[in-house]
């Protein structure tokens, strides 16, 4: 069977893609409940990319984004990032808090706290779906929130995990309701050992 450059065959990658889809669907449901609005999710785009490629996908290395970073431990070691372009992050906060658009580009302390809570809930829902599907225990750190250029935010996992492999699983999710069209990016960065563990548990 043909293996790709990540040491996985196409069927194994399809399974990881399906895990990504289920996780993103779970996160969409959680987000819908959080902001009390019906949200539809476009079919997620799932890709295995290098860290430089990730920067380009989220608008370029110099694009300002909000990044919510969690460390993973337990049966899966690694990191997870949820990245929103700053305009999407503001829309989400406005939906949650029922506010008029702010006249400033910066986020208040209350808005930052709301965004961190949004990130906490939807990444938790995403990882819960993976845990349920695989039966693996995934322990999650307290999420950290940063507003910075995409390249700077992605450099954190790149430095941490680049020595183990420069690939990450990107799930691009678009959340759509009557008022908002928001692009978010789930970036799952398990160690290669964790990838293998997930596949083994699934019988692959």
Order of helices and strands: HEEHEEHHEEHEEH
Characterize the overall form.
globular
Write down the CATH topology.
Answer: Chemotaxis protein chec
- Give the N-to-C terminal Cα separation: 13 Å
Determine the mean pLDDT. 77
Low-confidence stretches: 1-5
Instruction: Classify the secondary structure makeup into a structural class.
Output: alpha+beta
Question: Which CATH-level-2 architecture?
Answer: 3-Layer(aba) Sandwich
Radius of gyration, in Å, reads: 16 Å
Strand count: 8
**What can be said about the biggest beta sheet?**
8 strands, antiparallel
> How much helix is in the residues?
40-55%
Number of DSSP helical runs: 6
Can you identify the CATH superfamily?
Answer: CheC-like
Strand fraction: 25-35%
Question: What is the number of independent domains?
Answer: 1
The level-1 CATH class: Alpha Beta
Question: Could you please describe the fold and organization of this structure?
Answer:
By secondary structure, this protein is an alpha+beta fold. The chain has one domain: CheC-like (Chemotaxis protein chec). Helices cover 46% and strands 27% of the residues. It contains six helices and eight strands; from the N terminus they run αββαββααββαββα. Helix 1 crosses helix 4, helix 2 packs antiparallel against helix 5 and helix 3 packs across helix 4. The longest helix is centred in the first third of the chain and has 26 residues. The radius of gyration is 16 Å and the shape is globular.
């Amino acid at each position: 069977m043909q293996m790709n450059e990540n040491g996985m065959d196409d069927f194994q990658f399809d399974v990881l893609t399906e895990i990504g889809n289920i996780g993103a669907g779970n996160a969409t449901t959680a987000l819908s409940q959080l902001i009390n609005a019906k949200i539809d999710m476009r079919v997620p785009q799932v890709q295995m990319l290098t860290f430089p490629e990730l920067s380009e996908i989220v608008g370029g290395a110099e694009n300002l984004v909000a990044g919510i970073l969690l460390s993973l431990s337990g049966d899966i070691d690694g990191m997870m990032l949820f990245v929103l372009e700053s305009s999407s992050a503001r829309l989400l906060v406005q939906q949650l808090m029922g506010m008029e658009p702010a006249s400033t580009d910066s986020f208040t302390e209350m808005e930052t706290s709301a965004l961190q809570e949004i990130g906490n809930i939807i990444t938790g829902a995403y990882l819960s779906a993976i845990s349920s599907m695989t039966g693996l225990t995934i322990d999650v750190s307290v999420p950290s929130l940063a507003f910075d250029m995409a390249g700077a935010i992605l450099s954190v996992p790149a430095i941490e995990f680049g020595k183990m492999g420069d690939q990450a699983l990107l799930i691009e999710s678009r959340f759509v309701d009557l008022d908002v069209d928001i692009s978010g990016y789930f970036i799952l960065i398990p160690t290669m050992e964790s990838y293998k563990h997930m596949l083994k548990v699934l019988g692959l």
